[in-house]
Amino acid sequence: MVDVPPLLLDRASRTPLSVQLADALRAATADGTLRPGDRLPSTRELAVALRVSRTVTSAAYDQLLAEGWVGGRRGAGTFVLSAVSPGPVGVTPAVDRVAPASALVDLRAGSPCLEVLDRAAWRRAWRAAGDEPPDRLPEPAGDPGFRAAVAGHLLRHRGLVAAPADVLATSGTSAAVTEIVRVLPPGSRVAVENPGYQRVVGALRDAGCVVVPVPVDDDGLVLDAVPADVAAVYCTPAHQYPLGRRMSAARRLALVTRARAEGWWVLEDDYDGELRYDVAPLPLLGALGPDVVVHLGTTSKILSPTLGVGWLVAPPALRDLLLERRTRTGMRPPRAGQRVLAALAASGDLARHLRRLRRELAGRRQEVRVAVAAAGLVAEGDPAGAHLLVPLTGPEEEAAVVAAAAAEGVALDGLGRHLGAGAADRAGLVLGFAAPGREELRRALVVLTEVLRGTRNDSDPASPEGDGALS
Ligand SMILES: Cc1ncc(COP(=O)(O)O)c(C=O)c1O
């Protein structure tokens, strides 16, 4: 058995100790401190060594077991597995970057719903894209047919009037955010919703920006909490990620007004704006403030992130800076995926796909709400997109539910993963319902109801002492 590795746990942090411990052990496997085949201390020994409760060590081991980093049998011990490929050293893996063990049904947010994709239409679009001859020269703004298709898509599905010349192809939203902040002065401060999309937070930090977390209330990003000295504000007005509400009309107007007054760029991440199941969407920020807003769209939710295709519509001054940088650095989004999207749009297959997708996701959403209600809880969020929020009492309950579901073969995502520094004390599940097949989802929802009932009925909900804990 290996000695207890040096592990730093921050008791003042909002991140639950069990999550910190799982992260630290994962990092130790990645940097070679722990090696495949190493036997870990028992949950009891580790708890004593770290001066934490055994609940904490059990939950951390359960999480790592579910992710496939460790394996073991009760009584025989817990071992580091050899099949795990190390991630970047010293980086806390966000949950959406950790592939679940193949047996886990994935109820985390972020994945598209591939089950309703018409494979014949998909093949036709790739064939049509391949029929185009190769280009002699790169086009930094993107494929002309794609830009025209996106202009049509924005008008039809998002009510945004943009000429093809206003549209730039991107490799997706995170890539686009990186590009945009690279043309801001180095070290610029950027306000970001908290809770919010941590991949964008990562992209901003990577580009040398200072991230300013801003709370979110029922109307959206709390404008009064945005300091005047930021260069840009990133937000998800159509469907706040991960809380799932839309920004009110009044807040949208106020944001655009203040952006004009203070000289901010507003980055409008419209990641799943096409997926709304009730009322018509509110006007886009891009429509209210075309002079200050960069509207960002992506195919990651409506088709697949592997297509690597997105778009932006930016005020002309910013668009010119982006194009100048692309030309200077040789950076240009790949064209193949753009042509596939243009072909899907031209054939009408994209519109048909979106209709099917909306029908499917609205039905799934209802099933999730019923499953959560059966446990006496309420799944929150607008009728939109592919995720719902289930508030829980605190980080310990959140960790316990995630660990208990993982032990039953279901991967869940805690709200804690989406919180930055200074977030109000919030805990819950960010439940994604797009990734599994419909039948698989139904089976996973049965597990979810049971797990939520179990942890709620338990007088000591976070304590898996004894039965079920690996040691
Ligand atoms: C809030 C949010 N924005 C954007 C995206 C898509 O980003 P990208 O286009 O970089 O795949 C996602 C996907 O998970 C998301 O959750």
What does this structure look like?
The protein has 471 residues and is α/β, with parallel strands linked by helices. It has 3 domains: 17-99, Arc Repressor Mutant, subunit A (Orthogonal Bundle); 119-347, Type I PLP-dependent aspartate aminotransferase-like (Major domain) (Aspartate Aminotransferase, domain 2, 3-Layer(aba) Sandwich), CATH 3.40.640.10; 351-457, Alpha-Beta Complex (Aspartate Aminotransferase, domain 1). Helix content is 39%, strand content 13%. It contains 14 helices and 15 strands. The chain has helices at 17-30, 43-50, 54-67, 119-131, 144-158, 173-182, 198-206, 249-262, 285-288, 316-329, 335-347, 349-373, 395-407, 438-457, and strands at residues 39-40, 70-73, 77-80, 105-106, 167-170, 189-194, 210-217, 220-221, 232-235, 265-269, 293-298, 310-313, 387-391, 410-411, 428-432. The strands form 4 sheets. Strands 5-12-11-10-9-6-7-8 form an 8-stranded mixed β-sheet, with helices on both faces. A hairpin with a 2-residue loop joins strand 7 and strand 8 (220-221). Helix 5 crosses helix 11. The protein is globular. The two termini are 12 Å apart. The relative contact order is 0.15. Residues 83-101 and 459-471 have low confidence and may be disordered. It binds pyridoxal-5'-phosphate.
Summary, kept brief:
Helices cover 39% and strands 13% of the residues. It is built from 14 helices and 15 strands.
In whole angstroms, how far apart are the ends? 12 Å
Computed over alpha carbons, the radius of gyration is 23 Å
* Number of contiguous helices: 14
Distinct ligands: pyridoxal-5'-phosphate
Structural category = alpha/beta
Give start-end ranges of low-pLDDT stretches.
83-101, 459-471
Considering the protein shown, what is the CATH homologous superfamily of the largest domain?
Answer: Type I PLP-dependent aspartate aminotransferase-like (Major domain)
CATH fold topology of the largest domain: Aspartate Aminotransferase, domain 2
